[in-house]
Amino acid sequence: EVDKTFIFYNEMASKIKEIKKLPEFAWVKAFDSGASQQVARDLDTALKKGTSKTSHQHFPKFKISYRVKKQHNDSYRSVNNNNCIRIEKGAITLPKVGAVPIVLHRCLVSKIKTATVQLRHGKWEVSLTQEVACDEAKKVLKSITGYDINSNQTVVGSNGLIVDNPKYLKAEKQKLTRLQRQLSRKKKGSVRWKKAKSRLNNLHGSIARKRMDFAHKTAHRIANESDIVVFEDLNVAGMQKFNGKMVADNIMGLISDLTKYKVELRGGIHHEIGRFERTTGVCSVCGQHHKLTLKERHFTCVSCGTFSDRDYSSAIAVQKIGESDLMANGTVVRVTKTPNTQQKSGVKTKVFALAKLSLGSEEIEKVAT
Ligand SMILES: [Zn+2]
User: How close is the Cα of 309 to the center of ligand 1, in Å?
Assistant: First the structure.
């Protein structure tokens, strides 16, 4: 305010230490000092990104409407210094908070790095970060699969995988509107209003958890089935396909994100094709483009006469574009298999190798067969 300059992390950190001594800032001592340092660090990165010309992030304009009274999301982040965050006997110990009983969703594999505590849908959650080593990058990648979503948000893979969208939101929509109507009839701030609000909050929470569970399970299946996974650019594709209404429940972007890390943990490759690639109505045999209306689920190719399923053929198109992308940018190279093994199995399998590795051709053949 005074000299129109910003201060950065080091200065902020020392200022935090200074103000703690002042009586009017005694409350700063009441919480974990690591958490305030984290906030200072976040502000530091935000300032640096907001003022830098190379970053695409801009300085905020501070146009927060007065209707948004809650500007924080009831959360904070702590760093594990000297084992101050630990799990013992079904309880998590946090600095200044002490031991809190928890429901542990999975076993820890390594030391806890940070803990983020937040209030979500009326329940306190803590997410812990740990360091997990990825599997070594696979030298030989045996399969490539493209995935497409149709307007019903069913996942269709070029390997024949079909996962139906469970549409939790649609099923619970009635319940949701009923609760919202009940809430609107209550006097704001009253006891009954609070009760109705928490019921609504619980329903939102249950939908969110079901959605996440479904996304994780589907992503797990996809990651297990192939070594190279190709998706559309779902942010754009989703919007073009579903025109607003269903984007809110667009679970595919989530599945693609989750698949990315699951595939990388297994040493595979995740790829998203460019946003302007055409995948709908492309013949899987000759590549002829067709204009299809939303209702047409099947089409017959005008060039070669192949009858194909709309979703399956676009999954194939996604796979083909992904394949040529990855070969063009030099991530993988095609390895031709010896013809007799192909005839034996009767299934046409593609085998790729990481381009960076100069494997001898014999070695690739050995792993490929
Ligand atoms: Zn064709």
Answer: 12
Q: Does 348 reside within a domain? A: yes
Ligand 1 (single-atom ion) residues, CB below 5 Å = 283, 285-286, 288, 301, 303-304, 306
Using 50 as the pLDDT threshold, list the residues of the chain that sit under it: 244, 247-248, 338-348, 359-360, 364, 368-369
DSSP states of 234-300 as a string? Answer: HHHHHHHHHTTTTGGG--HHHHHHHHHHHHHHTT-EEEE--TT---TTB-TTT--B----TT--EEE
From the list 135, 143, 136, the residue with the least C-alpha distance to 335 is 143
In a domain, 198, yes or no: no
Q: For residue 192, what pLDDT is reported? A: 93
Q: Is the same domain home to 252 and 146?
A: yes
Q: What is the reported pLDDT for 60?
A: 73
Same structural domain, 224 and 278? yes
pLDDT tens for 57-88 read 777 776 666 555 555 667 888 888 888 888 88
d(CA 363, CA 24): 71
How far apart are the CA of 287 and the centre of ligand 1, in A?
A: 6
Which helix (H) or strand (E) covers residue 88, if one does? strand 86-88
